[in-house]
Write a structure and sequence with these properties.
A: 487 residues, alpha/beta, Amidase signature (AS) enzymes, eight-stranded mixed sheet, 12% strand, B: 106 residues
């Protein structure tokens, strides 16, 4: 025992199905590690007892049909889980116990996965370091000279939990990089699917035209399996795409001979560390070795993606978060009249970053400023999408770094919103254009922190993204360097 | 009739009065400390997004959604979802079948 938590999702499920490992043993090993890993602060809510009894039920009734049979899985605390508290890591949702289950998580349980608990994240998924959570920082399982490092964000509890073997795989959400950047910061794989590929129903909404759920896993095969599990049309989400069901794991293939990979010159940014550029160059060589054809491309509006995002995302957030009024769910403060009750509830219930974004969003949508900011940002969003549409006539996928740096120290960027936002420079354009993109671990920087490469694909062409990542993964031969220092 | 601002920077600067107005619209209680920190943060964010003014986009159609499909229409059949008991379950203050809010009519 003890080695079970090192297994990949694909291997663990196959051993559970063949009865080499019982669902109970698998679950118990994860529970034991979770109990010893409180220092990392990855969990907001644990459901360990229920997990054990569910695992027993799987063994006793031989429920081994599902593609995730017996897989112990914790999920980001942004997915509504029936009868299990769901907070979005915000004080304002403290005590909220959904009476329904999100579509994505219900697909996990239908396929045999066992819920371990809810994972910490930035408050309402607004952040790139997990520092905005109302329930404290998550600590990256990687460490530099005894200093604690952020796990990335907003899915920081997810990334740290996968890297520390506290869940065999997980689902996060990605509005501007919230799956891919934390995946890169912790040496794991993270995929943001095409907008519409996975249902958003039952996910606490941040920016509805950008939000998308996706897998975070130990490797590319696990990622394909998780996408098989969670994707698909849902009549409860009007933006979910009615495409035919695909089999990503079955069709996973390392043969990318002749595939055209674009390298966008605009992703060479000022102050990018040399090791990121070097890693990117290595990625290009690995692609060539795999038989891919490299093409220089241009995405001329790349530099406008971040400012566009920081108008559109807060605008949508200010509208989505209007529902937190202290009347229907969660936290409520007192006030002498209705307005004062609303104002006090929201002032005490939301953290600073969330308030900042609601304020910006309200401002850019307010009378007299709507056209100058919001409408303008939507126009630029069109140009950014057009850039991608044009290059995808020539190339099949695009290779870039995932983030312009490795993970940083806790507190390092906390007081400067712009420097925090710059983390998402390579990931945000993809959300604006609604494309699929994966981050895979590709190496380490000088201080031993993991770095990621991003592969971007055409809409609904996750298979090419996964196949390219699968080919690169073999060339890279990445090995986790997590040392269990917290246990 | 709306008055559209031109892009002179004076209009883009957020002062205390604007912060007070925005916090009122956002239903977020405001105080001196909050206002000062928001003046600083919002101005730096607005300065950052001003880059968009470099672009000539007068003829560009705005993009509000990347979804390019006809909206799905479900069958018009009754479903038992959102029952009263479920909806009220998480309310911090309720009475029988109602949400309770501070008195709004004198």
């Amino acid at each position: 025992m003890g080695e079970i938590t090192k297994l990949t999702l694909v291997n663990l499920v196959s051993k559970i199905k063949s009865k080499e490992i019982s669902a109970l043993d698998a679950c118990s090993d994860y529970v034991n590690r979770i109990v010893k890993s409180k220092k990392l602060n990855t969990f907001v809510t644990e459901t360990l007892e229920q997990a054990i009894s569910f695992a027993k039920k799987i063994d006793d009734n031989n429920l081994k049909e599902g593609i995730l049979s017996g897989a112990p899985i914790a999920v980001k605390d942004l997915f509504c889980t029936k009868n299990v508290e769901t907070t979005a890591s915000s004080k304002i949702l403290k005590g909220f116990v959904p009476t329904y289950e999100s579509t994505v998580t219900s697909k996990l349980w239908e396929r045999g996965a066992v819920l371990l608990g809810k994972l910490n994240c930035d408050e309402f998924a607004m952040g790139s370091s997990n520092e905005t959570s109302a329930f404290g920082n998550v600590i990256n399982p990687y460490k530099v000279n005894d200093e604690n490092i952020v796990p990335g964000g907003s899915s920081g509890g997810c990334s740290a939990a996968v890297a520390a073997d506290l869940t065999v795989a997980t689902v996060g959400t990605d509005t501007g990089g919230s799956i891919r950047q934390p995946a890169a910061f912790t040496g794991i794989v993270g995929l943001k699917p095409t907008y519409g590929r996975c249902s958003r129903w039952g996910i606490v909404a941040f920016a509805s035209s950008l939000d998308q759920a996706g897998p975070m896993t130990k490797n590319v095969s696990d990622c394909a399996l998780m996408l098989d599990a969670i994707s698909g049309f849902d009549e409860k989400d009007s933006t979910s795409a009615n495409t035919k069901k695909e089999e990503f794991l079955k069709n996973l293939n390392r043969n990318i001979k002749g595939l055209k990979i674009g390298i966008p010159k605009e992703y060479i940014v000022d102050d990018m560390p040399k090791e990121i550029q070097d890693l990117w160059d290595k990625g290009i060589s690995w692609m060539k070795e795999s038989g891919a054809i490299i093409k220089d491309i241009s995405l001329p509006h790349t530099k406008y993606a971040l400012p566009t995002y920081y108008i559109i995302a807060p605008a949508e957030a200010s509208s989505n978060l209007a529902r937190y009024d202290g009347v229907r769910y969660g936290f409520r403060a007192s006030g002498k009249d209705l307005n004062e009750m609303y104002e006090n509830t929201r002032s005490l219930g939301f953290g600073n970053e969330v308030k900042r974004r609601i304020m910006i969003g309200t401002y850019v949508l307010s009378s007299g400023y709507y056209d100058a900011y919001y409408l303008k940002a939507q126009q630029v969003r069109r140009l950014i999408k057009n850039d991608f549409d044009l290059v995808f006539k020539d190339v099949d996928a695009i290779l870039t770094p995932t983030a312009p740096s490795s993970a940083f120290k806790i507190g390092e960027k906390k007081d400067d919103p712009i420097s925090m936002y710059l983390n998402d420079v390579f990931t945000v354009p993809i959300n604006l254009a609604g494309l699929p993109a994966i981050s895979i671990p590709a190496g380490f920087d000088q201080s031993g922190l993991p770095l990621g490469l991003q592969i971007i694909g055409k809409p609904f062409d996750e298979q090419t993204v996964l196949n390219s990542a699968y080919a690169l993964e073999e060339k890279i031969g990445f090995k986790s360097q997590v040392k269990d220092w917290w246990m | 009739m709306l008055i559209y601002p031109n892009f002179s920077s004076s209009l883009m600067t957020i002062n205390k009065e604007t912060v007070k107005k925005i916090s009122k619209l956002s239903r977020i209680a405001s105080n001196e400390e909050f206002e000062n920190s928001m003046i600083k943060d919002l101005n730096s964010i607005l300065k950052f997004v001003e880059q968009l003014n470099e672009l000539n986009i007068s003829n560009t159609e705005p993009l509000s959604s990347v979804v390019d499909q006809k909206l799905y229409q479900r069958d018009d059949v009754e479903k038992k979802i959102n029952e009263k008991k479920d909806i009220l379950q998480n309310s911090p203050v309720k009475n029988e079948n109602y949400f309770v809010v501070p008195k709004i009519i004198e």
